Fold these 3 entries.
Entry 1:
Amino acid sequence: MRRVNGLAAICRAVGGVAVAPSALGNHAHQHHRLFQAALFSTTSNNNSSARSHWFSNNSISGDQTARAAARTVAGTMLFSVAATTLVEEVHAKEPVQSKFRPKDVVLYQYEACPFCNKVKAFLDYYDIPYKVVEVNPINKKEIKWSEYKKVPILMVDGEPMVDSSDIIDKLTKKIHPDVSPDSVVKDNEEKKWRGWVDNHLVHILSPNIYRSASEALESFDYITSHGNFSFTERITAKYAGAAAMYFVSKKLKKKYNITDERAALYEAAESWVDALNGQEFLGGTKPNLADLAVYGVLRPIRYLKSGRDMVEHTRIGDWYSRMENAVGVSSKIQA
Ligand SMILES: N[C@@H](CCC(=O)N[C@@H](CS)C(=O)NCC(=O)O)C(=O)O
C-alpha cells in the first residue's frame, strides 16, 4: 500500500527517522490537507524499514502553486542554519596534512540533513574540495542512477559511498592508512560517541526545532527565506511546513521517549562536555571523528532558538566555537 505521507518525509529528513502515518493521531489528521499543501511523500510499507519515497507527484492533487511550494520546501526544508556560519566570522583553520587528494568529490545531499552535514564537516575539516548536488526530494532525479535512495551519497573519483558513518570510515582509511596502536583506547571512546550521535543525538533535534508554534515558524522562516521561493510559495511552505512539523515533533517525542525535549538537548550537550573531560576536543588537542560528528549534526540547529538556548544553558558553547575554528571555512567548490 502506498499513501501520501508528508510527515514521514519531513521527520525523516530532519531527524533521519520516519513516523508511521498511524502514529499521527486525530489532531494531526485534521491538518493533513494543510500538510499536503506543503509536504508530501509516499511511504511504501512493503518492508519493515518503511522505505519512503518523497513527494510522489502521482499521489498529489491540488493547485500547482502549492505543489511547487511543496517541492521547493522539500528541497530546502532542511536548509541548514549552518549556512549562517558562512556569514559569521571567517576563522583561520589549521591545515590538515594528508596525501589523500581525490580529484573529483561530489556530495549528493539535502542542505540541512544532519547526516549530510556530518559528512560536510569532515570534508571541510580535511580540506577536501567537493561539489554539492542538491537532490530534489520529490523525484530524486539527481540520484536516479543509484539504488540507494537516501542522502548523503558521496562520489569519490567515481566510487559511490553511502551512509554518513560508512563514508567517513572509508575516507578516514584513505587519509590515515596506518592506524597507530596507541590510539586504540581513544578509538573506543570515539566509536562510542559516534554511535551516540547516530542513535541518540539526531533524534533529539526535530522535537527541539519544532517544539512550539513559534519555533516551528522560526525554523521554516529560515528555511523558506533562504530557499528560492516566490512570495506565495514562501508563505504556503512556511505555514504548512511549520504546522506539519509541530505535530510530527510531538510524535517523535513519544517515539523516542522524550518527555522534555529541551531538557534532553541540554542533557545531551552536558554529557558531551563531560565526555571531553576538560580537553579541548574529544580527540585531545585536535578534533576526532566524534567531535566532527557532533559538530556536523548540530550545525543545522546552532543558530535557531533551540541551538541558541543550548549554548546559553549548557557548557557546550566553548567547544562549539573551537570546532568552528578547527573546521573553518567550507571546502565546497562550484559544481
Ligand atoms: N544512516 C544514514 C541515514 C541517512 C538518512 O536517513 N537520510 C535522510 C535525509 S536526513 C534521507 O535521505 N531520507 C530520505 C528517504 O529516506 O527517503 C546516514 O547516516 O547517512
Entry 2:
Amino acid sequence: MNIFDGIDKLIKGNKSAAILKEPVLLLKEEFAALYAQLSICKNQTTALMEEISNLKKENENIKFENCKLREKIETFHTVKFESRNLREKIESYHHSNPHEHACEHCGSTKLRSIRSRHGRIFEDLGVRNALFTCDECGNESSFMVALPG
Ligand SMILES: [Zn+2]
C-alpha cells in the first residue's frame, strides 16, 4: 500500500481522470528508481558510518602511540642532557689535577691535564704518563699515574 494505490482507484472510478493514467505511470517509474537509489544511499551510509567508527578507533590508537613516543623523546632528551652533564664532569675531572701533582718548574698545583704523547707504551704496565700544563708558569710536567683496575 503506497500513495499510488489511492490514485489508481481514483483513475479507475472516474473517466475524466483517465488522462492522468500516463503521467502517473511515469511517476511510478521515477518513484521506483528514486527508491532504489535511496536504498543504495542507505547502504553506503551504513558503510561510511562503519568506516568513520574504524577511523575514530585508529585515530585514538595513533594518539595514544604519539603520546607514548612523545614521552620516550622527552626521556631521551633528559638522558641526553644528564649524559652531557656527566661527560662534562668526567672531562673536567680528567683535566683537573685530582692527585694534586705539583709543577716541576714552579711548584704550583694549578695544573691542567693534556693528552700524553707516550700513553700507549706505559698502559701495558698499568700506568699512564700523564702530561700537565701549568697555569702559573705555562711549562709542562709529566707524572706516572696508575690506571684504574
Ligand atoms: Zn709551573
Entry 3:
Amino acid sequence: MHELTPREIVEQLDRHIIGQHAAKRAVAVAVRNRWRRQQLKGDLSREVMPRNIIMIGPTGVGKTEIARRLAKLVQAPFLKVEASKFTEVGYHGRDVESMIRDLLELGITMVRREQAEQVQEEALKRAEERLVSLLLGEENTTETTPTNANASAADGLTDSGAMPTAEDLHKKQKEEAAQHERVRQRLLKKLQDGFFDEREIEITVREKQTIPVMGMMGPDQMDPGMTNMLEGLMPDRSRQRRVTVQRAKTILTEQETEKLIDHEKAIEQAIERTEQTGMIFLDEIDKIAGSSDGRGSNADVSRQGVQRDLLPIVEGSSVVTRQGVVHTDQILFIAAGAFHSASVSDLMPELQGRFPIRVELDALTRDDFARILTEPDASLTNQQEALLKTEGLTITFTPGSIAAMAEMAAEANASMENIGARRLMTVIEQVFSEISFDAPDLAKKGTKRIEITDEFVRERLSEIMDDEDLGKFVL
Ligand SMILES: Nc1ncnc2c1ncn2[C@@H]1O[C@H](COP(=O)(O)OP(=O)(O)OP(=O)(O)O)[C@@H](O)[C@H]1O
Ligand SMILES: [Mg+2]
C-alpha cells in the first residue's frame, strides 16, 4: 500500500479546499506520523503518542470539508462524529464509547472488503460453477454440493447384451464424465458471454431477519450494541427467490465470498488496524466547552459530563466491543470547532492537554470565494454547468461574473451573518433561480448557450442585496 507523504496529502486536499494551508499541513503531518510510528520497533513505538489536533476557525471555512476529504484519502478507519451529539438526551453519559465501536465496525468493513477483493476471482469461479449446475438442474436450489454425473453409467450398458467387464464400465464412466464436463464447459462459456443473463432461475438466499419493533421503541432508538446483539441472535432465514441469471451471479458470488473469507482473522486484523491507524474527527468540539457565561446551567453540566467521558478515550483506555477489546491509546483525534462563544481554554485542562496541536483556519476573502467558485474539482460552477447540460444548455461564466458573485457573497457575509463559503451556495442558487426553472423550455425554444455575465449577476442579486430583510431571507 502506497503511503502518502505530507506533501502528497496536501496536494490531494488542494484539489477540493482552497487555502487553509496550516490546517492541511497539520493533518498531513499527523497522518504521516502514524506511519512513521509504525516503522518503529518495540517500546519506543509504544511511547510515541498521537499528536491530536484542534482546528479552530469560523463557520464555513473548510474544517469539516478537510476532514471529509482526508477520510477518503487515508486508507484507515476514519470516523466523523459531532461532539455535540453526545449531549443529547439519551446519549449523554452512556455512549461516548460508541464511537470506538463504530470505528471498529468501519475497520471490519474495510478489512472484509479487502479480503473479499482477494478472493473475488475464486468466488466468481465458484458462483459460475454453481450457476452451471443450477442451469443443468443438478444443484437443487438449496446450497448443497452439486451431485455430479447423475446419469447412471449402468443404464447405457444394458442394451449392449454382453456383460460389461469392470474395465469397460470404468471406461464408459470416464467417457460420460468427460462428456458431461464438455457440456458444462460449453454452458459456462455461454453463461460468461451473458447468453442467459435475462433468464430466470430459482436460488436460495439467506436473509438476516430484522428485529420486530419492541414496544414503543424502534430499532433506531435502541443502543446500537443492543441492536447488533439481538440481530446476532435472530436465526438466518432461507428463502427461495426467482431472479435473473445476471442477478443470481451477483448473489451467489456474494455467498461464495462469505464462505471464503476468514471472519475471525478479519476481526483480528480490523482490531489491530483500528488501534494502530484509526482516526476520529470530533466535529463541533466547541459545543461541549462550557461557555464562559451561563455558568452552572444544566447544559453546562451536561457538556462537562461529555468532556469527562471523552477524556479516558482520548487518553487511552480499553473499550469492550462485541468483537473484542479495542485499546484507544494510538487512535488519532482531530477536533474542530468554530469557538465563537467558547474558547479552547473553556475545555477541561486535561482535555486541552491531549490536543497539543492547534491550527487556525482563516476567514475566507473575496478572492478565496472566486477561487472556490471555480477551482475545486466539483466546484459550484462546474456542478451548475453539468446540471444544465442535461437540459441541453451550455452555460459559460465570464470572469466578471465570478468576481461579482464572490463580491456579493463577501458583502452578504459582512452585512448579515458570516456563514463563510456556504454563502456561495445561496448566491449561485439565486443567480440561477430562473434559468433553473426555465431550462427545459429554453432548450425547446432553441436556446443553446447562456453566458453568465457580470451584469446578469448584479441584476439578479442587487435587488436582494439592497433590501436587507429580503436578503436575510433569500441569501
Ligand atoms: N476553503 C474552502 N475551499 C473550498 N470549499 C470550501 C472551503 N471552505 C468551505 N467550503 C465549502 O463550504 C461548505 C461548508 O464548509 P465546511 O462544512 O467545511 O464548514 P466548517 O468550517 O466545518 O463550518 P462549521 O463551523 O459551521 O461546521 C462546504 O460545502 C465546503 O465545500
Ligand atoms: Mg463543520
